[in-house]
Specification:
The chain has about 250 residues and is mainly alpha-helical. The protein is built from twelve helices and two strands; from the N terminus they run H-H-H-H-H-H-H-E-E-H-H-H-H-H. It has helices at about 10-35, 40-50, 55-65, 80-90, 90-95, 105-115, 120-135, 140-145, 150, 160-190, 195-215, 220-250; strands at about 135, 140. Strands 1-2 form a two-stranded antiparallel sheet. A hairpin with a 2-residue loop joins strand 1 and strand 2. Helix 7 (about 120-135) packs across helix 10 (about 160-190) and helix 11 runs antiparallel to helix 12. The longest helix is centred in the last third of the chain and has 31 residues, at about 220-250. The chain is elongated and about 65 Å long. Residues about 1-20 and about 30-80 have low confidence and may be disordered.
């Protein structure tokens, strides 16, 4: 029976009411089915739980094939491929163990320690050491250092360009030269007494030895005593030379 636009209004109204009733009855039936079975979502969960779970089975498949939706052998997103990592990281980088004692250390904590006791930053410290260790007959392997920086130093999290590596190395060198000039002037200008200068040297030596030990350098007691004696000997010569210079200046 037709209920088109030309049908009497009473028939169209009755048809509309009938359709509304049918829709309401259908929705009520669907709700009853969902409630009686725990809902469509819950039924899916029940099926998943009883059969090991669709999601779990998909994960299992992904673990076996590398992709839950296909048999592609590619790695899962955001999951590194062990074989790829091994092939990308040079062998000497994999074996490098200079900073293993710093595993778990945070850059900010290392930087704070150095800032309190030296002029250098954690970045400059790490890269200066790497430039010494990865020096060849033709120069420093800055590209290798920069590309593998997170693998070489635990508290470094970003890769560096060769230019950034060179900048950090240059900054380290400039600061050492500046600190050396500052220290020698302090030693030669008669500002410190001999005893005070010995204290300065002792504190400086202790910090330097600690950094070496953290880098993995095994210092024996004999090596420490020998190093301290060489430093003391040099400082005695510095004091004597500075006294001679001051005396000559006074005479003139």
């Amino acid at each position: 029976m037709s209920h088109g636009p030309d049908a009497p209004e009473s028939e169209r109204t009755a048809s509309s009411d009938s359709s509304a009733d049918d829709d309401e009855s259908r929705r009520a039936t669907e709700n009853d089915v969902e409630e009686g079975a725990g809902g469509v979502g819950e039924k899916t969960d029940d099926v998943d739980d009883g059969a090991g779970g669709v999601a779990e089975r998909a994960d299992d498949a992904a673990g076996a094939t590398g992709d839950g939706d296909s048999n592609d052998d590619g790695p899962m997103p955001d999951v590194p491929d062990p074989e790829s990592e091994e092939s990308d990281v040079p062998e000497d980088v994999q074996k490098y163990a200079r900073f293993t004692k710093m595993d778990g250390a945070q850059y900010d904590r290392v930087n704070e320690f150095l800032r309190d006791r030296t002029y250098i930053t954690a970045r400059e410290w790490a890269i200066a050491r790497l430039c010494s260790d990865f020096r060849t007959e033709t120069g420093v392997e800055m590209t290798k250092i920069g590309e593998n920086l997170p693998e070489l130093v635990p508290f470094m999290t970003d890769t560096y360009t060769p230019q950034a590596v060179n900048q950090a190395r240059s900054s380290f060198e400039d600061k050492v030269r500046t600190a050396g000039a500052t220290f020698l002037y302090g030693a030669m200008c008669d500002f410190f007494t001999a005893e005070e200068l010995d204290d300065v040297m002792y504190e400086s030596t202790e910090v330097a030895k600690f950094l070496l030990e953290v880098e993995g350098v095994d210092l024996s007691v004999e090596d420490e005593l020998e190093a301290e004696e060489r430093i003391s000997s040099v400082m005695r010569e510095v004091r004597e030379a500075s006294e001679e210079l001051r005396e000559q200046a006074d005479e003139e």
